[in-house]
Amino acid sequence: MTDIPEDSLLRQSLTQDYPRIVRGEGHYLIDDQGRRYIDGASGGVGPCNIGHGVKEIVEAMAQQASTLAFAHISMYENEPQVALANKLCNELAPPGMVKAYFTSTGTEANELCIKLARLYHLCRGHATKTMIITRWGGYHGSSIAATSYSGRSNRRHDLHPYYFPVVHLEPPYCYQCPYNKTYPECGLDCAGALERAIRQVGPEQVSCFITEPIGNTMGCVAPPDEYFPIIRQICDKYDVIMIADEVITAFGRTGKYFAMNHWNIIPDLIATGKGISSGYSPLAATLIHEKIWQVLDESKRSLPGFTYGGNPLSCAVGLAAQEYIQKHNLVERSAKMGEYMHRKAQQELSDLPMVGDIRGGKGLYMGIEYVQDKETHQPYPVELNLCGQIGDGAFKNGLGTCPISGGVDGILGDVSVIKPPFVIPQEDIDKLIEIMKQTILQVSATIG
Ligand SMILES: Cc1ncc(COP(=O)(O)O)c(C=O)c1O
């Protein structure tokens, strides 16, 4: 017999008890019992880069809501939308990004990239170039289309009948290399796999390659430095559009405005979301390189729209959030504090039981991977739900984290991802690491 629900809310997980969060202050979340938690994952999935309750954002929001909350982009333009697009393209994005198109979610921003890649080839007379190449372990959104070209197996299994064909490559993941090789002797087979796939499918069939710069749903996995330069070269060689999904990494999470800046790579299309508005209002943007824009401009095609895409309220919030980041040098702060957090975690956590890999150092963004065997890197059985246990334990101890499972092969793999707001003070990074230590020891004692 199913219990009669206490209320009508359908929660995302049917097995989890959700704490009720009633307030956010800086890098803290506060529940309905008045308990305070360090928000170690910026709202759980990473958007809250500037922290909660920032007065300037609330004021910008109120000002815009009382001036103009909505007028649809298919018929009208609005000032905050134009101002934010100019800021993104002229000040923040990698050179060559000349246009920004606004949507509400990262899923939509990625899907627009896929559509624009298709349109680019179509308009240049290459109508057969339609195939999407992506990576196992990647995540590009929750719509059925985005799930097709994502590679998070544990979220894909139920929907198989609805997917369209895409090609999945193994990701660069040195700690659990899918090719069973060791860097640098491996010769970066993970990057070379793109060229092999393009040739196998037929270059005249391949539209684009979509990739996260740092794999979030694999647990903060960055590639070796040579990876993206090789990928860029291969895409150019075969006229394949390179799409960077920077939904989580853009706007300072990795200590630079865009994660691709770490490798001086300029993608053809960039999907952003989350940190663009720091979680204050749903907003995302696709950034379009001049190369794509020129073809689109000549085609005179209209773009697909969504009701709330580019709405004045969200764009005003996005503008205020980006101004706040600039004014307070928060990207630089993310870089500095991220280095500190990573160093401290290495010192305090690496010798603990279960801790296999601690990766990060690029901004306030870190993954702690748990393994049964530190020599072989054997993951724990999925039934144990180890990262869930650690997530629950950390929360009881006063810290919100983002547990990630399935990164190793789609089923196995346990990682705690830590990505606090950029405003977290150093002493609370120490506290965060101390809570992780305490929690890891508690959980390891219970599993033996
Ligand atoms: C890398 C990446 N791409 C896309 C998305 C989807 O964004 P949204 O949930 O805003 O649709 C996410 C969300 O977690 C993400 O991390």
Summarize the helices and strands and which ones pair or pack:
Layout: E1 21-25, E2 28-31, E3 36-39, H1 55-67, H2 79-92, E4 97-103, H3 106-123, E5 131-135, H4 144-148, H5 153-156, E6 167-169, H6 189-201, E7 206-211, H7 227-237, E8 241-245, E9 269-272, E10 284-289, H8 290-299, H9 312-327, H10 330-349, E11 355-361, E12 363-370, H11 386-396, E13 399-400, E14 402-405, E15 414-418, H12 426-447
Parallel strand pairs: 3-13, 5-6, 5-7, 7-8, 8-9
Antiparallel strand pairs: 1-2, 2-3, 4-10, 9-10, 11-12, 12-15, 14-15
The structure holds pyridoxal-5'-phosphate.
From the structure above, extract its key features:
448 residues, alpha/beta, Aspartate Aminotransferase, domain 1, Aspartate Aminotransferase, domain 2, 2 domains, seven-stranded mixed sheet, four-stranded mixed sheet, 12 helices, 15 strands, 17% strand, globular, binds pyridoxal-5'-phosphate
Summarize the structure.
With 448 residues, the chain is α/β, with parallel strands linked by helices. It is built from twelve helices and 15 strands. The longest helix is centred in the C-terminal third of the chain and has 22 residues, at 426-447.
Description:
With 448 residues, the protein is α/β, with parallel strands linked by helices. The chain folds into 2 domains: 21-50 and 332-447, Aspartate Aminotransferase, domain 1, CATH 3.90.1150; 56-327, 3-Layer(aba) Sandwich (Aspartate Aminotransferase, domain 2), CATH 3.40.640. The protein has 12 helices and 15 strands. It has helices at residues 55-67, 79-92, 106-123, 144-148, 153-156, 189-201, 227-237, 290-299, 312-327, 330-349, 386-396, 426-447; strands at residues 21-25, 28-31, 36-39, 97-103, 131-135, 167-169, 206-211, 241-245, 269-272, 284-289, 355-361, 363-370, 399-400, 402-405, 414-418. The chain has a 7-stranded mixed β-sheet with strand order 4-10-9-8-7-5-6, with helices on both faces. Strand 1 (21-25) and strand 2 (28-31) form a beta hairpin. It is globular, with a radius of gyration of 22 Å. The model has no long low-confidence stretch (mean pLDDT 96).
